[in-house]
Write a structure and sequence with these properties.
The protein is of the alpha/beta class. It has a single domain, classed as Rossmann fold, CATH 3.40.50. Helix 4 links the parallel strand 3 and strand 4. Helix 2 crosses helix 7 and helix 3 runs parallel beside helix 4. It is globular, with a radius of gyration of 16 Å. The chain starts with 7 loop residues before the first strand and ends with a helix.
């Protein structure tokens, strides 16, 4: 595919839900299943979809146990690297529900507010408001987390509660910062294989939902 001057460029910035972590095989889903790739197929040659998912990525928190996962620290270089852009899709927050961070949903929303301020400042002052931001509240962590290999890390039931509280905060932030809001939990569920990640079918469905959001933007 050759990029033309009229090609729309979409940056998909997220964690393992964007990277395409397979909850059953604990590997990466293929390109036919990952939601950014599904978006690409739906939108066609007039668009370039850029995958920027990282396993374990947080919104703005350092995680010494897992390495360089701070999304806020990387979003600036990432935007510069991929500019020009027409859309930036942000889906983060699941990893911030982990027990070791001891956050409330309001804390997580506060992190996201700082990230949106950074993104929109770059958009305004470096890109002349050239791209639209789509903020996605991630799918809810499932009750099956209590029996998952990830359960201890996420703090079991409390992570489920936190994940369910994010959408109203994200909607409020979207209104404040001029973002398009999508609540992924209204459309897809995570797999009970680990209680955190989407299987291929859910990834494909989310890809269709977000492609539609782009087309309607």
């Amino acid at each position: 595919m050759t990029e033309g001057t009229d090609m729309k460029r979409i940056l998909c910035f997220g964690d393992s839900l964007t990277w395409g972590f397979d909850p059953a095989k604990r590997s990466r889903l293929d390109e036919d299943s990952r939601w950014p790739c599904v978006m690409q197929k739906i939108l066609g040659d007039g668009y370039k979809v850029i995958e920027e998912g990282q396993n374990g990525r947080t919104i703005a928190t350092e995680d010494p146990a897992e390495g360089e996962k701070n999304g806020l620290a990387y979003i600036g270089p990432c935007l510069e690297s991929h500019t020009p852009l027409d859309y930036v899709i942000i889906m983060l927050g699941s990893n911030d529900c982990k027990r070791k961070f001891s956050y409330s949903s309001m804390d997580i929303a506060g992190e996201m507010q700082i990230m949106l301020e950074k993104i929109q400042a770059y958009n305004r002052f470096r890109c002349n408001d050239g791209f639209k931001v789509i903020l996605v509240s991630p799918p809810h962590i499932a009750d099956s987390i209590k029996d998952s290999w990830l359960g201890d890390s996420f703090g079991f039931e409390n992570s489920v509660k936190l994940s369910k509280e994010l959408a109203p905060w994200y909607k409020q932030l979207s209104d404040m910062y001029g973002c398009i809001f999508v609540d992924a939990a209204e459309h897809v569920k995570v797999s009970d294989a680990d209680g955190v990640h989407m299987d291929g079918d859910a990834q494909k469905k989310l890809g269709k939902v977000l492609a539609d959001a782009v087309l309607k933007a």
